Amino acid sequence: MKLFATLLVAIAARASANKFVPTQRVQLVSAAQMYCAGVWPEDSDPSEWNIEAITNLTHLFANFNDCNPDVSKWNVTNVQSFVGMFENATGFDQYIGDWEINAEAITTDIFAGACPANSTAIQVQPTFDSPVISKAYQATLNSEVLPELGEIAKRCVCDGDLGFNSESKCVVCADIDMVKNEEGFCETTCPTGAEKYGDSCKCTSSNEVYDKEENKCVCKTGSYGDGNGTCEYCPDYTQKKYGVYAGVGDIEDRCECWAYYEVWDSDEEMCVCKSGAYGDGNDDCKKCPDGMEADKDEDEPGTGDIEDRCMCKNSDWTEWDEDEEKCLCKEGAYMYKDECYECEKGMEQNDDVDGLGDGDIQDRCQCEKEGYFIPDDRWKCEYECPNPNEAQVYNEDECGCKKGYYGYENTCTKCPAGMKGVSEEGVGYGPMADRCECTNPEWTEWDDANKECVCKVGAYTWEDGECYECYKGTEAKQGVGKGNGEFEDRCECEDKDKVISGWYCVAPPTPPPTQSPVAPTP
After folding, report:
1. How many Å apart are CA 336 and CA 345, to the nearest integer?
2. Which of 371, 434, 435, 428 has its CA nearest to residue 400?
3. CA 357, CA 350: separation in Å to the nearest integer?
4. Reduced to 3 DSSP states, what percent helix, strand and coil does the chain have, rounded to the nearest 5?
């Protein structure tokens, strides 16, 4: 056993270093066993083995049913026995038709039991006793005896309706969408609209491509139909549908109109306008203009002019003007931010307006009541007063001074600086004393002599010009009436023994002591 293992190592080493050239049968048998076991060096393929020195190949690859060595180039002219060489080797499937076999060599059972499952060996009737012969004798023998028995399909036949697949296994051809041909192989039956092309099929239509898995001609990208010779290019004004590739389907499934606002109509067999678009279709459709939307009665794809398929938004007060080619306001309506609205409550159509237009509320509407008008940037009627300082008295058809103004008709004047409108007084006429007050009425009052607001008694003027009450601990300075002045000028300490220093009352400073005069020295 140790000697045998050593021999195998030596054989492998020799095969790795040089072409394998066995000189004894035991070397070749060991190499065959190693190869079929998957441990033979990869850089020494059996096709390169030189076996000219070997005369006996009996049972060399017998019982190796998964072994398929390439021995097509072997020189077997010196071999005397091929007995059972591939017996039960059901995986062997190599061409050996170029072997020159000695006519006297024994080939008994060379392929005995070597057919795969569900197949039977072909019974060859040779002219001579030997089933395999040299090329020199081929001319005198029946053609069925040519030494091409290595390939399974040349020496075996599948049982019944089974046929050989691409791996030389016997299968039901129909299970792989094929049929059994005269040679016993499963082959593809090309579908309608296709013809044989090598081992596959080729569709005859330029619009179709062969789908091997489906064994069917299907439509190329940009074509539609059921396949097998029925596919056509997408119609005019259409293109391949995004995300759709080779396959079958109708126009809607596989094609789309190239114009953005169009969709295919199978009834009309053309591209028509989408909802919200108008035109004659076939690359003529346009989106409804700004300010318009799909007509409620034409909310489905179709064709038609703008009046048929589009409607102005807020259609109760808008209408399409064909001359202006835009939506305009109907009579009794005005435009605001590109939308039309009915004239507001208390208003009616302006007498100077006739027909459609896009003017604002002041242009297209007027107040129903006489003496009223619509001010700029306003949306309600106001009573028209003669003076810009006057306004309508609330809920009355009369005018008055605006809030913050005083006087009478056509004489309304703004309250003086430092004064504001009396909070309780709205629009109306009246003297300044009734309609104006100082901005800080708690500590200011009107000085009619000086025509200005001044601080009341007990208040002083701060840097912001406002009047404030004398600070805590102080009071109005005796003898000082209403008027303006600083804190120290208008306030004094409640404690008369103190004086104001900054903002506080403090004790007055102590005067320095007086000194008696010194008499001069005589």
Report:
1. 16
2. 428
3. 12
4. 15, 25, 60
Q: How far is CA 368 from CA 321, 354, 358, in A?
A: 28, 17, 21
Domain boundaries along the sequence of the chain: 163-265, 385-438, 440-506
The amino acid present at 410, given as its one-letter code, is N
Q: Say how far apart CA 457 and CA 476 lie, in whole Å.
A: 6
Report the alpha-carbon distance of residue 67 to residue 45 in Å, rounded. Answer: 13
Tokens for 9, please give them.
Answer: 């190592």
Q: What is the pTM of this model?
A: 0.46
- Residue holding tokens 């005589």? 522
Secondary structure, 3-state, 197-252: ECCEEEECCCCEEEECCCCEEEECCCEEECCCCCCEECCCCEEECCCCCCECECHH
Q: How far apart are CA 228 and CA 226, in angstroms?
A: 7
pLDDT 10s digits, 105-161: 998 888 889 999 999 888 655 444 444 444 333 333 333 333 456 788 888 899 999
